[in-house]
Design brief:
Number of strands of chain A: 9
Radius of gyration of chain B: 20 Å
Order of helices and strands of chain B: HHHHHHEEHHHHHHH
Strand content of chain A: 15-25%
CATH class of one domain in chain A: Alpha Beta
Number of helices of chain B: 13
Radius of gyration of chain A: 19 Å
Shape of chain A: globular
Largest interface: A-B, 35 and 31 residues
CATH architecture of chain B: Orthogonal Bundle
Helix content of chain A: 25-40%
Distance between the termini of chain A: 27 Å
Largest sheet of chain A: 6 strands, mixed
Largest sheet of chain B: 2 strands, antiparallel
Order of helices and strands of chain A: EEEHEEHHHEHEHEEHHHH
Helix content of chain B: over 70%
Strand order of the largest sheet of chain A: 5-6-7-3-8-9
Structural class of chain A: alpha/beta
Oligomer: heterodimer
Amino acid sequence: MNIHAEDPIIEVHDLTVSYSQKPVLWGIDLSLPKGSLVGIVGPNGAGKSTLIKAIMDLVPLSSGYVKLFDTQLDNVREKISYVPQRESVDWDFPASVYDVVMMGRYGKLGLFKRPRQADREVVQESMRLVGMEAFKNRQISQLSGGQQQRVFLARALAQQAEVYFMDEPFAGVDAATEKAIVELLRRMSKEGKTVVVVHHDLQSVAKYFDWLILLNMRLVASGPTVDVFKEELLQEAYGGKLTILSEVGDLLTKGRFPSREKTV
Amino acid sequence: MEAIYIILAGSLVAVSCGLVGSYLILRKMAMVADAISHAVLPGIVIAFFISGSRDSLPMLLGAGALGIITTFLIEFFHKKGNLQTDASIGVTFTWLFALGVILISTFAGKVDLDQDCVLYGEIAYVPIDLWITDTGTIMGPRVLYISGSVLLVVIAFIFIGYKELFLTTFDPSYAAIIGINTTLWHYLLMGAVSLTTVASFESVGAILVVALLIAPPATAYLLTEDFKKMLIFTCIIGIIVSVLGYYLASYIDGSIAGAMSTVAGLIFLVVFLFSPTQGVVFRNRRSKLSMTLNEEPI
């Protein structure tokens, strides 16, 4: 099942990615609507991270093409932001929370220019939004996992972008941080920002996202969560992992996944 | 006057090496410095053959080219051949260095270069290796001009590209997203490392350049968790190393470059043991402190 968005902000056409001749994504074709909160779900090795990296041109494409804002990535870089996996950097790096969040402004600054008052205000506001103001001068090596994740979020916010790609922002964070992050993402999507999140936990999928991409090397489904979060599609994406599926099935029948409107 | 010239030359070399070395250790590329410092040897010999003189400029160009080729080969074997980075470094620089040794030994009779000089350098010759203009004016030690210019280039490079170097070192994929050319900055930095290495070559030699590239920034890394302070501490440590190294050498009447590297190692050891934040001696106390920190509600 593949529902295309009208007037899409992200379009992926016939995308194939391979690592040393071994394909990890096959013929992906999808489009995403503006202002949606999109979850990318699938089993381990399904190519979830690879998909967002391919959209952002971080990995070479074997075939296909990507359009953002109906144009090429290079024309709209300042509108794109990225929250990488927390483990992708060395947190012992000698930098403070403020230093890392300020990196979000580097793209707009260019060579030679030092950050100005306006940039400092944006950084301050971004730290406030994720509740990290108090840790402004704390060294990043002294942060907990949840705080590190919030610093990465603040850095992305400081970019003041239109589209955000996030690679497992809930991995290894505590429940309180997860809740705070989800609320922030909802607010962003209400303000018309498009947020694409690689997500691991099936239990919370229906609660968090209003658009869902089910992936298992090929595209299993893409569309509004209400249409996509169905047992047969999940079955298709997760293959024989019945234990998870029967659990999800139970949850579905018990109706413990209310639609998003009810929870907000 | 002699002492001042030697200490000044040592400090200039140590500060340039330390500044580029700071980026190398944070990029986990310390051994690349080792590789470059050795692999530039054939470049120097070939530049000597082509130009027929021991002028600094052809040597700098030849060695700089080899430095870039070295980093390119390391990346190439690593990415295209799926070889581990350390294996890739080990293969690349040993054969390039060996090539240089063969070139020197084969043409030993015709070449005014010898392996000892290349390997160990001789900073003691700084005061007598003068720059004399065509009109006969004595401008002072040649090495001071070379290492001084290199230091200026390195400082200008870091000043202009501070943000880009900082970000590409910390998080290259994010840098790529916001439109910073990470490959370009990688090779610019490697170019700076090659330049610094070559300029330091004559004074401290290939092997001891590595000590100055890595030991002062590694020491500074243990002393602070602020990158700008790390750069400043690196410079200070570099200067201390060359001052103490000189006096150690004259006290024991030994190799100055060797004494400087020994001092660099000793300073590292002292900081490793007694640093207030990272030191082994204070570590127990610190881990207790961080436990109480983690307990605070966040």
